[in-house]
Amino acid sequence: MAAPEAGSPGGGDDCLEEDEDELEPGLDEAEAEAEPEPGSGAKAAAGARGAVLTRRGITLRVLLRDGLLEPARGVLSIYYLGKKFVGDLGADGTITWQETGQVFNSPSAWATHCKRLVNPAKKSGCGWASVRYKGQKLDQYKAAWLRQHQPNAPATDESLASEGEEDEPPEEEEEEAAVAKAPEPAAAKKPEERSKKQQCKSPAEQPAAEHGPAGKRPENKPRVPVRYCTLGTRDSARNPQTLVEVTSFAAINKFQPFNVAISSNVLLLLDFHSHLTRSEVVGYLGGRWDTNTQLLTVLRAFPCRTRLGDAESAAAVEEEICQSLFLRGLSLVGWYHSHPSGPALPSLHDIDAQMDYQLKLQGSGNGFQPCLALICGPYYHGNPGVESKIAPFWVMPPPEQRPNDYGIPMEVEVAYVQDGFLTNDVVQEMTLLVEFYKGAPDLVKFQELWSPDQTYLDKLKGSLAARTPKDQSFTHVLEQIYSLLKHSS
């Protein structure tokens, strides 16, 4: 499988501790657990154990057996590039990741898996230097065991255990950085309660929660985009709505790690949704991911017909969308939202949200799977002509030596595929959207002028014209929907 080349400079550094994890439980441990000879004292037994058991053979089972660790839920954690992973320590020395219930046999296996979700180019996990037990790194417990059972052995340079991990900040720094982040979705706060079905909910929850109560009009004050290189380290005082220019893969001499094809019906429906209201909207993207060709195909848009801040109705709508995805044999492959009067560029909040969603979509699998974000700017006067700007982006993790930086918003090149006809699903969704926003205070008044010679309805028609299917026999259907819009507003 092709892995993104967008990895950080430290991605190829293998840890000296790595080999130790991969061998557990090994011959050393088996010999160490053998019963001492009859008549030998505890001290002799300890000495024999220390003589046989090398640093490589000290596993979680050994530390559990000798009382340095105790099995419990939620006592293991990993902090990596601003992300926190929580695991349960089993009595048999296995680790259960709370997010998905996956079981790992060693700290190395768990750390490598989690780190690759954030940074697909990461080659090793440096498990004993990365995994913490009750806040303290596991390699410190390993060193304590050696001091207890091999008091006469030469001192070990404990810093070697953390080689390759010096770029990861201590727990306190990570938690301070988390304060500067946007709050995580509710589904992420209690990972042990998430079912497989619930996992497809998260992409709509956070954008919906961000933008306040229903009917709130966006600020008219223009937001000036900034370049990523000017951001620096996370700053809690920085406005999370700051827009950031996207970076092309070519500009940093990288290849885009996956290909994308988007159906024209997807663009038509999300563009229509974005035009209806002066408030931000959000929705899901359904499609398929082909690991052989590394092609992400976006086949269906699922608008969230909810008022922002209405968590109760949002849950019902999301459940309906999950069912629709399942019935159509589609997977959740991304999300979209609108910037009604601003440019189609991600904000700092959007970047953090997208990084979270990329992680969540990969959390249940062992391989790399992309998550695509689309931003639609329907009424930004900086757009050329009447066509809305729809911008796809993906977030690359920050360099490992700068884990408290923001993720890097990357411009994604896509192939747009014109559908043969307008499906009944799309027509039904458009009709339901018109009915949902009917009479709303933030509904766009389509009979009013958008420009000196065009109404908002003319503007909508012009934008959708670029996204229509090959078969033009549906034109009368769209005219009926446009007529409904006139009466609604």
Summarize the structure.
Helices cover 33% and strands 17% of the residues. The protein is of the alpha+beta class.
Molecular structure report:
There is one protein chain. A hairpin with a 2-residue loop joins strand 5 and strand 6 (136-137). By secondary structure, the protein is of the alpha+beta class. Helix 10 runs antiparallel to helix 13 and helix 11 (264-275) packs parallel to helix 14. The protein has helices at 18-22, 27-32, 42-52, 60-65, 107-118, 127-130, 138-149, 171-180, 186-189, 202-210, 264-275, 311-327, 348-362, 424-437, 456-465, 475-488, and strands at 72-80, 83-89, 95-97, 103-104, 132-133, 136-137, 259-263, 282-290, 295-303, 331-338, 372-377, 389-396, 408-411, 415-417, 449-451, 454-455. Residues 1-14, 16-51, 156-203 and 207-219 have low confidence and may be disordered. It is elongated, with a radius of gyration of 27 Å. The chain contains 16 helices and 16 strands. The strands form 3 sheets. The chain has an 8-stranded mixed beta sheet with strand order 13-12-11-10-8-9-7-14. The protein has a 6-stranded antiparallel beta sheet with strand order 4-3-2-1-5-6, with helices on both faces.
Q: What coarse outline follows from CA principal-axis ratios?
A: elongated
Distance between the termini: 51 Å
Arithmetic mean of pLDDT: 77
Helix content: 25-40%
Q: Roughly how many Å is the radius of gyration?
A: 27 Å
- How would you sum up the major sheet? 8 strands, mixed
| Count of alpha/pi helices | 16
Number of DSSP strand runs: 16
Could you tell me the strand content as a percent range?
A: 15-25%
Contiguous runs where pLDDT drops below 50 for at least 5 residues: 1-14, 16-51, 156-203, 207-219
Please state how the strands of the largest beta sheet are arranged side by side. 13-12-11-10-8-9-7-14
Structural class: alpha+beta
